[in-house]
Write a structure and sequence with these properties.
The strands form 2 sheets. An 8-stranded parallel beta sheet has the order 6-5-4-3-2-1-7-11, sandwiched between helices. It has one domain. It contains 9 helices and 11 strands.
Length: 259
């Protein structure tokens, strides 16, 4: 599947990723993952966008449709996985949003997207980037993350150099399994759970999976390795990711005031 998806990119018009290098320097952006706490932060985000027209928003693939349906038009969206269905953007206006797509992602995203499209190749320790770069004809490589949320954080902080406020980066969900994703219920919360943990942020009982716990640790290590170099602030106010915990509303005000 990955080979077939990469083949669909060959010869297609795609932006040069170098156009995005350092484009966010001196600016703030809100990065939206799809953890359940995204719901609680949405009113603050919508108010901030009205109050600060310079504020940018980027989101993971599955968050695009729900955000659009609730009046938030992301400036950027990132898709990484081969099987993320196009239902997350179908029927919405994509002309105002830039798509950043892994060459191995579901090709329907870049084929049907109406706004600007940039393709990237994940550079990993087993050198698969050589294979997929050749197949896709794309040589824009970025470090391989553990999931799309981490790819979002790494790309916008390291490549584009934005000051990044993270929301919905929970890596866990409520103990009652009522919500695995924001704005929805899913039985995935039942069969994905492998551990019960206490949130270091709000002290609530949470559930997580092996994959999410690993991804949480990956981003923790990434942020720690770039401490003092990149600006990554966790404003989710929930979950198990404990790096640089900040109040979202306060950080939005600091961005507006240029602090």
């Amino acid at each position: 599947m990955w080979d077939r998806n990469a083949d669909t990119v060959k010869g297609k018009k795609t932006g040069d990723i170098e156009e995005l290098f350092n484009k966010g320097a001196g600016q703030g952006i809100v990065l939206c993952a799809f953890g359940p706490s995204l719901e609680a932060r949405l009113p603050e985000l919508k108010a901030a966008l009205k109050d600060n027209p310079k504020l940018k928003v980027a989101c993971v693939d599955k968050a695009f449709g729900p955000l659009m349906d609730r009046g938030v038009v992301p400036d950027y969206v990132m898709v990484q996985d081969a099987r993320v269905p196009e239902k997350y953007f179908e029927g919405r206006d994509t002309t105002k949003t830039t798509l950043i797509a892994n060459v191995c992602a579901n090709p329907k995203w870049h084929e049907l997207w109406q706004g600007p499209v940039y393709h990237i190749v994940n550079r990993d320790s087993i050198d698969t980037h050589f294979r997929y770069s050749k197949r896709a004809g794309v040589y824009n490589t970025t470090p391989a993350p553990s999931n799309v949320s981490n790819a979002l954080a790494a790309f916008f902080s390291r490549v584009m150099r934005f000051r990044c406020l993270l929301i919905g980066f929970d890596y866990s969900w409520p103990e009652d399994c009522s919500r695995y994703y924001a704005f929805s219920t899913s039985d995935k919360a039942e069969w994905m759970a492998t551990a019960s943990v206490i949130s270091p942020i709000d002290g609530t009982q949470q559930r997580t999976s092996g994959n999410l716990a690993y991804s949480c640790d990956w981003l923790q290590q990434f942020a720690s390795a770039h401490d003092g170099i990149l600006e990554i602030y966790n404003c989710s106010e929930a979950g198990i990711f404990a790096w640089e915990r900040r109040k979202f509303k306060r950080e939005l005000l600091r961005l507006k005031e240029g602090v």
